[in-house]
Amino acid sequence: MSRLYKFLDNPDFFAKLANSGLLILGDREKHGFSCTENNEKLFSFRLPLSYPAPLDGQAFFEYLNTVQLTDEEDFIILLMEAGRAAVGLYKGGKLIDHKNIRKYMVRKKQGKAQISHLKSKGKSRYGSRLRLRESEAFFDEILEKLFSENYKSISDIYYHCPVRLKACLNEVAEDLKLDLNQFTWKRLATDIKECSFNEFKRVSSEHHYCRFLLKNEHSKIPTIPEYKKL
Fold first, then answer.
1. How many other C-beta atoms are found inside a 10 Å radius of the C-beta of residue 70?
2. pLDDT per residue over 56-78, tens digit each?
C-alpha cells in the first residue's frame, strides 16, 4: 500500500538517500525523483519548490553534488480561481505586499467561469458582456501587480490555479506584450480551499516541504522524517 509523507527540507535525509545504493533518477516536469527496481516503483518524491528542478534522468547523487542552494527568500505567491485571486510579495521570507482581486466572472446558476464562451458566442446579452469586461479586468489587475516595480525583479512565482485560468493569463499577457516567462513558475502541490488572505498565509511555507510517496514499505531507505509545521 502506498503512503504519502510530507516533511520539511531535510539535507541529512537526502544525503543518506543518495548514498543508499539505489538508482534514483530525476523527473524535471514533476520537480522530483523516482526509484524503480526490477520494474517495480519503490518510491518517488517531489523536491521542495525552493530547490531547482533536476534534469530528466539525472542521478540523485549527482544532483546533490552539483545543485546550488541559496537562502533566498524573495518570492511571489499567486492563487487564482474564477473571479478571485490573491497575489503577494515576500522578501526575506516576510510578506511585504498583498492584494485580493474579486471580479464577476461566473454565472450564478452554473457557478462556472464563462471565459471561452464569452469570447466566442456569449457577447450578445448584457450579463455576458459584463462578465467579459470583468474577466479582462481580472487578468489585467493580476498582470499589473506582477509587472509592478517591486514584483518584476523577483524570479520565483509559487502558484495554484486551474490550467484553464493559467492559459487565459498567458493569453492576456501576450496581448499586452508582457513576457510571463521572465518568471520561474512553480506550482504548489497542495489543495487550495479558497483565494483568501488566510489561505494565502497558510500556503506561504509550502515551498519548504518535500512530498515523498513510498510505494513499497520494504524498500531499504533511511528513516523518513516526521512532519513538522513551520
1. 7
2. 999 999 999 999 887 778 999 99
Q: Write down how long the chain is.
A: 230
Give 5-42 pLDDT, tens digit per residue.
999 999 999 999 999 999 999 999 999 999 999 889 99
Residue 105, all three cell numbers: 466572472
| CB hemisphere CA count around 17 (13 angstroms) | 24
Residue 218 grid coordinates? 520494504
CATH code for the domain defined by 75-206: 3.30.420.60
Burial class (CB in 10 A: 0-12, 13-18, 19+), 73: middle
Alpha carbon of 81 to those of 65, 102, 131, 226: distances in Å? 39, 10, 15, 32
Report the C-alpha gap between 45 and 27 in whole angstroms.
10
DSSP string, 26-69: EETTTTEEEEEETTEEEEEEEPPTTSPPPPTT-BHHHHHHH---
- The domain limits of the chain are 3-69+207-214, 75-206
pTM of the model: 0.82
Q: Are strands 184-187 and 84-91 parallel, antiparallel or unpaired?
A: unpaired
Residue 35 and residue 41 in contact, taking contact as beta carbons nearer than 8 Å: yes
Q: CA–CA separation, 122 vs 130, rounded Å? A: 10
List Cα–Cα distances, 35 to 18, 154, 228, in angstroms: 11, 34, 25
Among 103, 156, 109, smallest CA distance to 133 is for: 103
